[in-house]
Every structure is written in C-alpha cells, then in structure tokens.
Amino acid sequence: MGLDGAWAIAWMRGSAAVVAEHRVELITLDRDIGDGDHGENLDRGFSAILPKLDEQPADATPADILKLAATTLISTVGGASGPLYGTALLKASIAVAGQEDLDADAVVALLTAARDGIVLRGKAEVGDKTMIDAWTPAVDAASSAAAGGESPARVLAAAADAAWGGAAATEPLVARKGRASYLGERAVGHRDPGAQSTSYLLQAAAAAAGEGAA
Ligand code: ADP
Ligand code: MG
User: Fold this and answer.
1) Among 24, 43, 58, 68, fewest CB within 10 Å belongs to which?
2) Domain residues of the chain, as ranges?
3) Pocket of ligand 1 (CB under 6 A)
4) Nearest to residue 31, comparing CAs of 180, 198, 197?
C-alpha cells in the first residue's frame, strides 16, 4: 500500500512530537558545538505546523502537506536548520507533486530530493559533520530497500536506521560547515545536532507509515 496525505500529516504530527520530546537533548547537543538553539528552533517550527494540519482538506496530497510544512519552517525558524529543512521539504514536495499514493520509488525520490535540497542550500558533503551525514546514508539505504522490493514503510524504516548510524558517525569528525566548524578539533567527540534531529524526523516518517515507534 502506498503512502497518502494522511501519512504525510501523521509524519508531520509525529515529527512535532518527537522534536518536543527530544528538545532538551537537541539543545544540549547544539550547546556543545553550536549556540544551543537547535531543539528550540525545531520545536517552534514543528509546533507552528500543527494547527495548520487540522485545516487541510481530506484530499490533500503528500506534496500539499510537505509544502505547507516547508513554508512554515522557513518562515518560523531562525537559524540554519529552518531554511535547510524547509528547502528539503519543499524539494521533496516538488518531487512527488500530484501523486496521491507514494510507492517505494516515490519515497526514494522524496528523500533524494530532500537531501539534494539541503546540499543545494548548504553545500555540505558527507563527512562535514552536518545533517547530510544522516541524510545521505538514509537515501542510499532507502534506494537499496526499494530496489530489493521493500514496501514504502520498510523503505522509510531502512532510511531511519541508516540515519541513526550516520548521526553516530559524526561524533569523531571535525566540522567543516555550520557553527561547529568554528571549533576545529574541539568539535571532536560530539554528535552533530542536525544529524540527530534528521534521525528523529525519519524515524517519525517510518512510524507514521506503521514501521517502528516514534
Ligand atoms: P544554527 O547553526 O544557525 O544555530 P541550528 O542550531 O538550528 O542552526 O542547526 C544546526 C544544524 O544545522 C547543524 O547541526 C547541522 O546539522 C546543520 N547545518 C548547519 N550548516 C549546514 C550546512 N551548510 N549544510 C548542512 N547542514 C548544516
Ligand atoms: Mg544552533
């Protein structure tokens, strides 16, 4: 079964919940190697999306929901992560425009477009200690899962698992992008907050599709 507008709504609600639940953790990670606002930034952004979801028509497509979330994040979140996640969701929305039910390949297209949007905006590469270190393994795992005939939900679960691995792998890295790059070697030993929040957001996407707990 494909993933419809109700899935996208559930993903955004789940994202708001998981970001609220891990707000302090994300703040602490960002305090270690940034300015300590990542959890607050995302909590503000996803909280602002929630009331708008209630106003969506029953026939809203995933693209409609993603676009709504994108514009809300861009307009409510200060800091790097608002425009980065906003661009990700906007590009994702364009990638699945007009589709009512997303199959596994459409999910891969959505995730790929999101990752490419972040790269377009932030110019980070894998190994720069940013959210791209979670997104790129997630896209690769999703692509392999879809090629192996997995369901859209399993594709998302594979993406979320790989994002966790990617987030953990940021710990030994020196940052080359974002505020953490000002710290040089002092960033070593700390996990990138954006890579961690990416893991939570992809976990919420899989949970909304019925795979795993958010
Ligand atoms: P700010 O750094 O402006 O305070 P946030 O704290 O909300 O914004 O977000 C920080 C996160 O944004 C970092 O942990 C990193 O994952 C991500 N980030 C910062 N710059 C870039 C970039 N150029 N490309 C990709 N991700 C980035
Ligand atoms: Mg910050």
Assistant:
1) 58
2) 5-208
3) 30, 34-35, 37-38, 41, 79-81, 84, 118, 122-124, 130-132, 177-179, 192-195
4) 180
